[in-house]
Amino acid sequence: MGARRVGGWIRAVAALCTALIAAAGCTGEPRPPAPMPTDPDRAAAFALLEAFSDHMIGEGAPAVLIDVRYGGKDWTHAAGVRSLETREPATASDPVRVGGITESFVAVSVLKLVAEGKLGLDDPASRYLPEFGSVLHLPSPVSVRQLLTHESGLPDFTDPLLASGPWEQVTVRKVSLEQQLALAATVPWEPRLARIFNYSRTDYAALALIVERLRGHDIAQVLDTDIARPLGLAATRLGGPGLPGMVHGYVTVGGARLDASMPEWQAEAPSSGAVSTLPEVNRFYAALLTGELLPPDSVTAMKGGYLQYYGFALRRWNNTCNNRFYYGLSGDTDGYGTIAMASEDGKTRLAMAVAYPPEPPTLGVNPLISELTDVSQDALNHLC
Length: 384
Description:
The protein has a six-stranded antiparallel sheet with strand order 2-1-11-10-9-8, with helices on both faces. A three-stranded antiparallel sheet has the order 3-7-4. It has helices at 7-19, 40-58, 102-115, 132-136, 144-148, 158-162, 167-170, 177-184, 201-215, 219-231, 278-289, 296-303, 368-380, and strands at 63-70, 73-80, 96-97, 237-238, 250-253, 256-259, 274-276, 315-319, 324-333, 336-343, 349-355. It contains 13 helices and eleven strands.
């Protein structure tokens, strides 16, 4: 999506907010003052987040939502509207599409099967999906671990899908997990000597199919059983109708603005289809990192090795407060960008969602997602 780059602006605002840390805010337009902490560094963190939000709204973003948990306290922010049609004000707890964060949910369900001894990380995927190799014409075996880490080499099914017709026609089609694999099979797959990180949504389609086969239920039901119900996440789901109060995202096609909040092809996609709220996303990552959802060895496995920036659907970022790491994931999808980061002890967390300024959809990553990531990490590192 042809979004505007704002990295230089963020760096300038970060410097300004650091210089003005005693100020009540560092915003681009007046608004009723939000409660600010008395600690100067923490004031700078929230001033930076508000400034970023103001800039995004000024660039045409329909809404910006932020939920921060730190030191037993919480700070929330919402700007913009739920829908450009109704103009109803957005709130910080409104449901949003969370894009790739869906993969963290799916990875938990995979690791639960591993902990139960029903699935082996280094087993070939074809052991659980006999048709896997014949459908995809594998040049070499692919393990469950390689699917989790996006090192399988599988082609991304969205490339042939979204290239098959106009966006407004393609995105209203339902695409089953089996169809996702079949679409990936239409892309030539060249064998490689080394398996390296190469993001492909097909990896999580295959993982979801494995989970379905082993559990005997569809992936949406499994995620509800494994995550949403135990944690009381009432708004977190994969598939189903849109939720009341949902923030709508948009794209532009042929000069017309189109609603991208519930495209059928992503409705149940295990790579990007989940809907949640920022408080529930923060609750999920805290529960994951503190062992509520998985045993300690499984949590360690999800984090990845010390030299890896990406484990099993968890990314990591430097935590300068303690020279350790934040863990979480970003989600970039048509109309929305979302980021979630949490300290290892789960006590400091930040989740942010932006309904992107409407732009034409593309097959690439929206550059604004890197800006969400940068400003979130900077803000967290002020909350020591």
